[in-house]
Write a structure and sequence with these properties.
Largest sheet: 9 strands, mixed
Number of helices: 3
Strand order of the largest sheet: 2-3-4-1-5-6-7-8-9
Radius of gyration: 19 Å
Shape: globular
Distance between the termini: 56 Å
Order of helices and strands: EHEEEHEEEEEH
Oligomer: single chain
Structural class: alpha+beta
């Protein structure tokens, strides 16, 4: 069985030391089974841990960092993107965003209180590092006070819905 990748954006700057215990619980791999470090560096990493978490820090903006997570083959039942987003938001006490495969500017937002909504993100002009700005959300999110609150039709169009149960034609109810 191959591993699974996750891409997560975090609003407020997390303490890297706090990430390990939160991710240990999310992936149910036991204490100390997650390696956390700067993305793009190889020195000092424990490559044999079941879960790897690389951090990319951003310039000041609405998003502090990106977490690139990898759950290796030793993780028997990797959680869904939603489960990871919700657990990280709750555990870190800040908004967490997971990407949307069909639209690169659209992200699902999870809040520490358990709510979720959609957000549109764009690149801000980061000088030395990338900077991201949340331009709109479908519902108010405290972490993004400057974002417009409006409908995001592309979010609605892209969400798969379960088929509806057939309904009787008008006037064809029980007699």
């Amino acid at each position: 069985m191959a591993g699974r990748d996750y891409g997560v954006l975090v609003a407020a700057k997390p303490d890297p030391a706090a990430l390990g215990p939160v991710l240990d619980a999310v992936f149910a791999v036991g204490e100390g089974a997650v390696e956390v470090g700067l993305e793009g560096t190889a020195d000092g990493w424990r490559w044999d841990t079941p879960v790897q978490c690389g951090i990319t820090w951003f310039e000041p903006g609405d998003i502090s960092c990106q977490l690139l997570l990898y759950a290796g083959p030793a993780v028997p039942d990797p959680p869904s993107d939603e489960a990871v987003g919700r657990a990280l938001a709750r555990g870190l006490g800040t908004a967490v965003l997971t990407d949307h495969p069909a639209t690169p500017w659209l992200y699902r937002v999870f809040t520490p209180g358990g709510e979720s909504t959609w957000a549109a993100i764009e690149d801000a002009d980061g000088i030395d590092a990338p900077a991201l700005r949340v331009t709109a959300t479908q519902a108010r999110v405290d972490a993004f006070p400057d974002a417009a609150v409006r409908g995001l039709p592309e979010a609605v169009r892209s969400v798969p819905f379960a088929p509806r149960a057939p309904t009787p034609a008008c006037g064809a109810g029980p007699t």
